[in-house]
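Today's session is about reading a structure prediction critically. Students often jump straight to the picture, but the first step is always the sequence itself: look for stretches that repeat, for charged clusters, for runs of hydrophobic residues. Only then move on to the predicted structure, which in these notes is written as discrete structure tokens rather than atom positions. Here is the chain we will use throughout the hour.
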Amino acid sequence: MATVEEIYRKHRPKAFSADRTPSSAEVWWWFFMRISGIVLLFLVLIHLFIMHIQDAGVERVSFAFVAERWDNVGWKTFDWLMLFLALLHGANGMRIVLDDYVRGPGLRTFLKGTLYTVTAVLMVMGTAVLITFDPNAH
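Below is the predicted structure for this chain, in token form.
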């Protein structure tokens, strides 16, 4: 019968392996996660303050409010950056979870392909909404 230590060693996530040497890309993704997390923290706090706390809060958010806000290229850039970083940060985190916990290479490839596809589609859709938004359509 196997000991608890042997079972743990066999089933522990790859991230905790002592003999694991990260690739150059993994090191850059590690830095990206730390930097994007800090940037996202500030972007989200600014978003929460402006959209939910300032003035009348959420009650003032309407189509006219969004149209006025997105008439400014600075706010469009702010919202796009928050969307892009959040999607990329989340997708990279999920990729790491899949690498660590999904054992079958075929299933892992399928799940990562699905993750990348959904992330790309959401990025394209979000970008398209920001670029093609017409405040006069209402």
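Discussion point for the tutorial: DSSP finds five helices and no strands in the chain.
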